[in-house]
Structure formats: C-alpha cells, structure tokens
Amino acid sequence: MTDALIQGILLGGYYALIAAGLSFMFSVMRIINLAHGSLAVFAAYALFVLADSFGISPFLGLLIVVPLMALVGWALQRFILERATRAGPLVPILATFGLSIVIDNLLFEQFGANTRSLANYIGDLSYDSWQLTDDIAVGKLAVLIFATAVALLAGIQLFLSFTPLGRAIRATSEDSDTAGLVGIDARRANAVAAAIAMASVALAGAALGTRATFDAYAGAPQLLFAFEAAVIGGTGSVWGTLFGGILLALGQSFGAQIAPQGFLLGGHVVFFIVLFARLFVPGSALRRQVLAALGRQPA
Amino acid sequence: MNAMSGERITVERWTGSARLAAAVVVLVIIALALGPKLLSPGLTDRLTALFVYVILAAMWNALTGFGGLVSVGQQVFFGLGAYFAIRLADWGLNPFAALVVGAVGVGIVAVPLSWPMLRLKGGEFAIGMWVVAELVHLLVNLDTLVRGETGTSLISMNNFDATTRRDSIYWLALAAMVVLLGALFVLLRSRIGAAIQAIRDNEEAAASLGVRVVTTKRLLFVLAAFGAGMAGALWLATAITFQPRTFFGVQWTAYMIFMVLVGGIGTFEGPIIGAVIFFLIETWFGSTGVWYLVGLGAVAVLFSLLLPKGLWGAVESRWSLQLLPVGYRLRLPETKAE
User: Fold this and answer.
1) What's the pLDDT score for residue B337?
2) Which long-range contacts (CB under 8 A, 24 or more apart) does B7-13 make?
3) What is the pLDDT of residues A231-266, one digit of tens each?
4) Is A288 part of the contact surface with chain B (CB cutoff 8 Å)?
C-alpha cells in the first residue's frame, strides 16, 4: 500500500511534467494543443536519434533538443496557431488535431512499428534505486523526473511573476488588446509562451523515453494523461498541475493493485470523479439545473 | 426609397434551384435503392461504406458545425453502437434488429453523458470526449463476450446467405442515411433549427435572446451520438468481426474531421460532398497506408487554416447558392426606377 502510494506520487511527477506545457499554453493562449503528446514523442525520437546515431547521451542531447523544440513552438505559434485563433475558437482544435495525425504518421513512416527507449543510453540511472525499507525502493530516475517537474513548475511560476517578459505574457493572456495599448507586443508574448511550452515538452519527451518505451503512436495517450492531469488540477493553475498529476497517477497505481487492466481505468475514473464533482460545486449553474431537474430547490 | 416598408419584403425558404435540387435528391435516392439489383457485389459493399461515411460526416457536423462543439471522441458512439449490436445479438435478438436497437441504446446512453460533458468548453470538451472513448473502450474490453482486444464476431449474421446479407445491409445503410439526413434537414428548418443556427453564429447573443443553449446542444449531442452509433453498427454488419481497438480508434474522428472540413463545416451539403471526396481518396490512395494518413492530416490542417468554410462554403458564398436550404433568405422588392 505504501509502495503504491510512493510509486504513484513519483509517477505523478512525470504527468505533471508533460501537463505543465499543455496547461501553460492553455492559460496563456486559451488553446489546447492536441499535438502536444505527438510533439513530446517527436522530442523523444530526436533524443533517440542523437543517442543512437551520434552517441550523444540524452542529457547532453537535451542541450540540442530543448532549443530545437522551443523553435518548433515558436513556429507552431507563428504559422499555425496565430492564424487558427483568428479564424475562430474551434479552428485551433481542428488544426492541431490534424497536425498530430501528420506527426504521428511521419514518425511511423520514419521509425516503423518498433518500440524504442532511451533507457540504454543513460547507464545505471535507468535501474538504480534507493532502498528505503526492506520492501520499498524508489528509482533514482523517477525521483529525478519528479524533481525536474517541480523545478519546471517553480521556474514557470517565478518567470511569470518576476520577469518583464513573464508580466507581458500574463498581461496578454488577460486581455491582449489592452496589453497592446500599453506597448506589449502580443504576438511576441504568445510566440515566447509557445516556445517555453514546447521546451518543456522536450523535457517531457526525455522523461517519456528514459522511463519507458515509446512508439510513433504514443502521442495520443501522452496527450490524454497531460490533459487529465491538467483538468484534475484545474487547467491553468501551475501547482494544481502537480497535484493533478499525482492524483491521476495514484488512481492508476491503486487501479493496478485491483486488476491488471485497472491501471488506465483507475486514472480515467479519477478524472471523471473530479469532473462530476465539479458539477456539484455549490453555486454552479449546472448544479442548479440538476437540482431543478430532480424537482428540488437549490440550497 | 421605400424598400423597408415591410409588406413587400418576402421571406424565402425555397429557391428555384433548391426545388430542382430536391427533385434530383429524390431521384438519386430512388436510383440508389435499386443499387443492389444493378451493381456488382463489390460495388454494393463500397456504396454501403460511402453511406456510413456520409452518416459519420453529417452527424459530426451536426455537433460541431451547428452545435459549436468539437469532439475528438465520437468514436465512443461508433464503437458502442457496434458493441451493443454484438451484445443484443448474443442475447438472441435478430442481428438486423440488433443494429437499430443498438444505435437507439447509444442515443439513450448519450443523454446522461451530456450532463457533465456539455459543461466543458472548447478544447476541454474535445479531449474530454476522447477520454470518454478510452474509458468506454476499456470497459467494453472487460466484457467476457468481447475477450479483450481479441474481439468477437456478429456470428448470427452468418445465418443469412451472402446476397441477402449484403443487400439488406446496403438498404439498411441507405435508409439510415436518408432518415438521419432527413431528420437533420427537418430539424434545421424547424424552430429549433433557427435556435441552432443562432447558437452557431453567436452563442452569447443567442442566449440573450432567450435561446435555450444547453437544451439545444443536448439535442444535437444525442442526435450525433445516435447517428455515430448507427454508423458503427452498420460498419460491424459489413465487417462482421468486432475488434475494440478498431472500432474505438481515434482515426474515425480523424475521418469525420477531414470530411467535414473539406466539404464545408456548418453547411448541410458540405459533409455529404466531403464524404464523397473522402470515399474517392480512400478508393484511390487508401493502399498507400501511412502516407495516405499523413495526407489526410495535412489537408485537414490546410483547410482549417486557408479555407475554413470548406469547398461547399466557398461555393455557397461565391454564387449565393443553396441547394438544400435550411436557412431563411430575405427577398427585397425590386427597386422601381426613379
């Protein structure tokens, strides 16, 4: 039981890491990027190629892939999202979904159906662990990923609160027209935000590749995990994302204790419990409707 | 000068070209109904697939184009329609009846599901539906009849000989398509249709005029679920085997998005055209596998960015043409020469 709890919390770190970019982008641009998971898998493949063909360890590889992904984020915003947002609120969803199909299938075309992993390129770290008690051990890699997530979230928080660029991004997300009046370049703020989100996706891709295996179509489940963590924690809230990731992972961890298929089911069930709970938040419009439908007066 | 004096402005719901189009539609339906008698078995099967695509496109468009709700999880209803049919047939119901009852079951399931889901907005609704699809997929796998990802078959369908089976499924698919499109057409021309199009154009403004936004959206949600469920059941009837991964795959939603974006989102005719285009592309390029999917995704991105109203939307605004009119047109009196 304690073991499931500890492993669940550590796994939650991974979900927080991948959810951080999704949640950040949503809070700034009000866009949910449906290619988020596919881009994380793309980053994992980029690290794999660097390690496999050029012998560059994934940690050094991040020095290349993080800036590369930041560039991808900037381009994504400039060439797709900016245009899509202007065309209407639904268009970014459709455009990024189409993009994810393109990315997934191009990766499949390039790398085939074999699953890949970065675990072979990080030495002992992939299996080393700290023995806490006789039956509980925590993997060093899992702890590293958890610490990375916390550092990333703290970094985003500090960046938004204390830097001029962070303030510009917050102002743009509140009201881009008014921000423009006081001389903030909204296009630049959004492009920087997208670059930061995709840089974080590079870290998530590294975590995905080192802790497990991935294939060309692994993007969809990663997107769903990121989304579930973000929604459970309250979309757009920095520390809520960590909490959401942990709650999701605990649901999976305890689900797996009950039945082999319980891992994914447990996570989805937690997600829906939180979603339903939001219906009954006092004062919500839907709660009044539900009560009215049941023939009762709202309290 | 007195063009605004009221009585001479007439509201037009049918135009000459639309009356002609309606007559053509009736003729096409009659011709299609004769299909199995005239066409080769292979072509009959392909047309059945086309009808399923038209249903999928029209129903996704009902939800997205008119209801303003993008769902990337409509495969849940597609898969559930097939699963319910399998289940009902296993309990001894005639397989053809099971297809229809299964789809009705999907519509019923959609009612309670709409409560939490319609509370979500934009992208949250889109991916939330995807999570629903994954959850239902996992739950269906737990049924011992399905045997996990191994799947099962609609065995009782084999009690009918091949020709009867093919022709019956063809007619059932044609009937389902005609009924669903007809229902959508009547719905869009009714009072609710005015509300639907008001919501499509501006949700807040519609709400402020007293349109019951959530109720209207729920109606579309359930209709779209029922339609996708019917499509899934029909697809099962042609494929016979039910593998959960195939039926609950997100590629179904990718196809729907492609068809609607290319044809013209938020128009009645667009998705039908999109389905025909998708059908042709699949026939010609489907064998290229991965590149075919890359192409579909890329075309969807390009249309959403460059031609967001799709082919039919472009035609409609270019020539002010409406073949199956679901809206209202004001005809101003001809201004007399001064």
Assistant:
1) 47
2) B8/B333, B9/B330, B9/B331, B9/B332, B9/B333, B10/B330, B10/B331, B11/B328, B11/B329, B11/B330, B11/B331, B12/B328, B12/B329, B12/B330, B12/B331, B13/B189, B13/B325, B13/B328, B13/B329
3) 888 766 678 899 999 999 999 988 888 887 888 889
4) no
Q: Phi, psi at residue B4, to the nearest 5°?
A: -95, 15
| B257 closest CA partner among A91, A37, A26 | A91
CA of A77, closest CA in chain B: separation in Å? 13
Spell out which residues of chain B touch residue A269, defining contact as CB-CB under 8 Å: 135
Coil/strand/helix, residue B210: coil
Nearest CA-CA distance, residue B200 and chain A, Å: 11
Which of A31, A109, A264 comes nearest B123 by C-beta? A31
- Are B294 and A95 an interchain contact pair (Cβ–Cβ within 8 Å)? no
- Residues in chain A closer than 8 A to B213 (CB atoms): none
Is A87 in contact with B68 (Cβ distance < 8 A)?
Answer: no
Is B308 in Cβ contact with A97 (below 8 Å)? no
Is B301's CB within 8 Å of A95's CB? yes
**Domain that includes residue A33, residue range:** 2-293
End-to-end CA distance of chain B: 9
R_g of chain B, CA atoms, integer Å: 21
Cβ atoms within 10 Å, residue A130: 10
**B123 in contact with A at a CB cutoff of 8 Å?**
yes
Strand pairing of A213-214 and A116-117? antiparallel
DSSP track, A21-64: HHHHHHHHHS---TTHHHHHHHHHHHHHHHHHHH---HHHHHHH
In the structure, what pLDDT confidence band is assigned to residue B264 with cuts at 50, 70 and 90?
confident
| Contact across the interface for A102 and B131, Cβ inside 8 Å | no
Which of B246, B225, B260, B282 lies closest to B54, judged by CA?
A: B260
Is the dihedral angle over the CA atoms B302, B307, B309, B312 positive or is it negative? negative
Q: Tell me if B63 sits within 8 A of B71, measured CB to CB.
A: yes
Q: Is residue A298 part of a domain?
A: no
Q: Closest by alpha carbon to A101, among B251, B192, B114, B266?
A: B251
CATH number at residue A141: 1.10.3470
Among residues B294, B78, B273, B95, which one has the least CA distance to residue B181?
Answer: B273
Query: B70 and A227 in contact by Cβ < 8 A?
Result: no
Neighboring chain B residues of A289 at a CB cutoff of 8 Å:
214
Average pLDDT (A16-20) is: 93
As a whole number of angstroms, the distance between CA B246 and CA B238 comes to 14
Element containing residue B259 per DSSP (H, E): helix B251-263
What is the ipTM, given to two decimal places? Answer: 0.82
Domain count, chain A: 1
In a domain, A263, yes or no: yes
